[in-house]
């Protein structure tokens, strides 16, 4: 599966390399958009010392972790949201007759390496934030775990969005509300939102496990909702649970696929 | 090699159940070259898609090359080759050579074997002149030859051709037909072909399956097909009459549910 993904991604990278100007512009565009997010954080802290009780370096850490996870998931699985186009144009039929999982083929289709720019930027913010925080060695191991869990959570959301498009071919935007919306939601400490929303993101759609709960553990801060500090350690479990749901939904989608007329 | 036992597929369209194919039973032995005919919307494409694993049947059972297509799709893909006349299976932006190389890697064909097969294909399909051209810049005839080469590189035991000569000029058609006939006879490939071009049937196939209103309306040799409408000069007229007959004869009203396993009509 990984071999097939790498093979197809490399093929699309070579195809993209035929249009170097487009590649450069897309990369620059991604960096500018990411830069605007960072500028927004800067503006907030120019006016106030803390955001919902969190200082600049802590917010940088939370922002960097969630955006790095999202950027990597978007790089690797973001193209799953194009599946409605594959259904309508009939290219999904072609994928289904090849000896490779359609999931891998759709995810790697039109793989665009310029999204790496966004990951590097988010990684830099995370690194700067971490370097200015005094995280004890006994808790810093949780940082890579939370980023990987975050990647899995966002990848599962992309997959769920793709599976939904087997039902709603005409509405890929519905799925984007959860993926891109989730990325925006987790940019800030979740304590800026209403506790009911935070509860929904903890016990329902587990976006709180991308960076909030594990972030609280790394920062050694108590949970405003009163959950025990080990809740943050559940990120991998939450990620795997959501991934299992997404895998089932994807399989159901493929099985009820209707193809087009011709 | 290909088996359908009471296979059916329904679609739900605005709350109503529509039977695209119902109670389809037939068998194709290894090495047979079979045409699948039928008017537009008769269920040919649905049948092909059930046999290739694209669609899951809603009733009955199909088996191709010993496998259940929708459950063992990836394993099946290694044993069958599929050509869609209406769309390419190649990568639009890649040169044909790179597309074929990617096919080689996906199907895990040994490099040396690949070289030999590609050389043979270049020879017979005259691919040499446009191997370096991106697929999107190929003419329809060139693209179709490229698609056929791609479908045969892993030496499939079953080849499914969905309208392989659509839109081709007479010369290209003749070349494609000659190649298919020779290559599939040499390798003993089982071929199922859908087409609206009866020249394909006359030059390639011995047996004809006629699908109409989602059911098998005729299963026999081309000569037997001719005999159903004596006095008609060309096979074109014979098929036209069959299509018209099925349109005028009153149809049985659609059943609310797919019929349980019917008698299996085998060849």
Biggest sheet of chain B, strands in spatial order? 5-6-7-3-8-9
Number of extended strands of chain B: 9
List the total number of helices of chain A. Answer: 13
Beta-strand content of chain B: 15-25%
Membrane topology (chain B): Peripheral membrane protein
Protein name (chain B): ATP-binding cassette domain-containing protein
Organism (chain B): Microbispora hainanensis
Keywords (chain B): Antibiotic resistance, ATP-binding, Nucleotide-binding, Transport
Short description:
The complex is a heterodimer of chains A (262) and B (267). Chain A has helices spanning 2-16, 20-47, 56-77, 83-89, 91-96, 102-108, 116-132, 137-140, 142-167, 172-185, 195-204, 212-219, 235-255.
Please characterize this protein's 3D structure.
The complex is a heterodimer of chains A (262) and B (267). The two termini of chain A are 30 Å apart. Chain A contains 13 helices and no strands. Chain A has one domain (2-255). Helices cover 71% and strands 0% of the residues of chain A. By secondary structure, chain A is mainly α. The longest helix of chain A has 28 residues, at 20-47. The radius of gyration of chain A is 19 Å and the shape is globular. Chain B has a single domain (2-91, 135-248), classed as Rossmann fold (3-Layer(aba) Sandwich), CATH 3.40.50.300. Helix content of chain B is 37%, strand content 24%. Chain B has helices spanning 44-51, 73-79, 96-106, 111-125, 140-152, 170-187, 198-204, 222-227, 235-248; strands at residues 2-13, 16-28, 33-37, 59-64, 80-84, 158-162, 190-194, 207-212, 215-221. A 6-stranded mixed β-sheet of chain B has the order 5-6-7-3-8-9, sandwiched between helices. In chain B, strand 8 and strand 9 (215-221) form a beta hairpin. Mean pLDDT of chain B is 85; it is low at 250-267. The interface between A and B is medium-sized, with 24 and 30 residues. Chain B: One of its GO terms (cellular component) is plasma membrane. Chain B: One of its GO terms (molecular function) is ATP binding. Chain B: It is a peripheral membrane protein. Chain B: Keywords: Antibiotic resistance, ATP-binding, Nucleotide-binding, Transport.
């Amino acid at each position: 599966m990984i071999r097939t993904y790498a093979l197809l991604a490399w093929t699309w990278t070579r195809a993209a390399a035929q249009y170097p100007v487009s590649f450069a512009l897309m990369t620059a565009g991604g960096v500018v958009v990411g830069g605007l997010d960072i500028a927004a954080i800067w503006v907030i802290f120019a006016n106030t010392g803390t955001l919902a009780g969190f200082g600049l370096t802590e917010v940088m850490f939370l922002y960097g972790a969630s955006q790095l996870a999202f950027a990597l998931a978007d790089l690797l699985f973001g193209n799953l949201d194009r599946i409605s186009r594959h259904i309508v144009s009939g290219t999904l039929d072609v994928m289904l007759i090849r000896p490779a999982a359609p999931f891998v083929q759709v995810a790697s289709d039109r793989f665009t390496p310029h999204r790496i720019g966004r990951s590097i930027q988010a990684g830099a913010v995370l690194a700067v934030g971490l370097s200015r925080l005094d995280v004890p060695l006994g808790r810093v191991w949780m940082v890579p775990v939370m980023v990987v869990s975050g990647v899995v959570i966002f990848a599962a959301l992309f997959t769920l969005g793709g599976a939904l498009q087997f039902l709603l071919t005409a509405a890929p935007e519905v799925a984007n509300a959860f993926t891109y919306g989730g990325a925006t939601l987790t940019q800030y400490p979740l304590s800026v939102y209403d506790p009911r929303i935070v509860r929904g993101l903890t016990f329902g759609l587990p976006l709180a496990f991308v960076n909030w709960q594990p972030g609280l553990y790394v920062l050694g801060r108590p949970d405003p909702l009163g959950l025990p500090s080990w809740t943050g350690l559940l990120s991998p479990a939450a990620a795997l649970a959501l991934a299992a749901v997404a895998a089932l939904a994807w399989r159901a989608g493929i099985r009820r696929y209707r193809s087009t007329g011709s | 090699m290909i088996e359908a036992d009471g296979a059916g597929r329904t679609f739900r369209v605005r709350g109503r159940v529509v039977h695209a194919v119902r109670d389809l039973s037939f068998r194709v032995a290894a090495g047979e070259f079979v045409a699948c005919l039928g008017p537009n919307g008769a269920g040919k494409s649905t049948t092909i898609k059930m046999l290739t694993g694209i669609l899951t049947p809603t009733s009955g059972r199909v088996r191709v090359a010993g496998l259940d297509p929708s459950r063992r799709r990836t394993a099946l893909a290694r044993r069958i080759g599929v050509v869609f006349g209406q769309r390419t299976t190649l990568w639009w932006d890649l040169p044909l050579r790179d597309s074929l190389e990617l096919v080689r890697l996906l199907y895990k064909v040994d490099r040396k074997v690949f070289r030999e097969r590609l050389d043979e294909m270049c020879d017979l399909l005259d691919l040499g002149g446009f191997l370096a051209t991106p697929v999107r810049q190929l003419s329809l005839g060139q693209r179709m030859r490229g698609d056929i080469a791609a479908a045969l590189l892993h030496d499939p035991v079953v080849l499914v051709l969905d309208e392989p000569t659509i839109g081709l000029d007479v010369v290209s058609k003749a070349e494609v037909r000659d190649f298919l006939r020779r290559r599939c006879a040499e390798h003993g490939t089982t071929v199922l072909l859908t087409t609206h071009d009866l020249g394909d049937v006359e030059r390639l196939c011995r047996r004809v399956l006629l699908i109409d209103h989602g059911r098998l309306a005729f299963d026999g040799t081309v000569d037997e097909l001719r005999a159903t409408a004596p006095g008609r000069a060309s096979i074109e007229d014979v098929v036209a009459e069959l299509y018209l007959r099925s349109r005028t004869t009153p149809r049985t009203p659609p059943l609310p549910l797919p019929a349980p396993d019917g008698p299996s009509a085998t060849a």
